[in-house]
Amino acid sequence: MTFQTGHIGLNVSDLDRSRDFYLKIFGFEVFGESDRPDRRYAFLGLDGELVLTLWQQSEGRAATGLPGLHHLSFQVPDIEAVHRAEAVIREIGATLHHDGVVPHGEGASSGGVFFEDPDGIRLEIFAPSGAGERPAPTTGAPTCGFF
Q: Where is the VOC domain positioned along the sequence (predicted)?
């Protein structure tokens, strides 16, 4: 048996705000959505593939101190794509961790940008190489584990 991650579903507190956030940063397309007050959702993806579903059925912010999702990580082909995402993250004023693109660990070439969506869900956009020009923000542990 083999496994591959399918789409990711997130509870959000404000569908319009979250949809716009993910469209701007990731360049997703809207595959479908509902504006019924009791059933608001949006299906987002790229190149005909569903990637993310947003469900407006929560309040408040993601609780990082409780069991559950730690972060979502999205791989892009190269470090230039990570820097383009970082520019958009800064432009829209999203919470950015580690002040920009950093390696996954000391001496690692892979790395990315770590940030939060409007509901506090932690996100990462990374490339397999090209991030080693800065020191890792944490020593003795993976960067993606502590932000």
A: 4-128
87 and 140 part of one domain: yes
C-beta of residue 143 within 8 angstroms of C-beta of residue 137: yes
Distance CA 20, CA 44 (A): 11
Q: From CA 33, how far away is CA 35, in angstroms rounded?
A: 7
Q: Which of 125, 130, 124, 127 shows the shortest CA–CA distance to 145?
A: 124
In a domain, 66, yes or no: no
Tens of pLDDT, residue by residue over 53-89, are: 999 999 999 999 999 999 999 999 999 999 999 999 9
pTM of the full structure: 0.94
Structural domains counted in the chain:
2
Using 50, 70 and 90 to split pLDDT, how confident is the model at 8?
A: very high
How far is residue 81's CA from residue 54's CA, in Å, rounded to a whole number? 24
Residues 140 and 89 in one domain: yes
Which helix (H) or strand (E) segment is 19 a member of? helix 15-26
Residue 47: domain span: 8-56
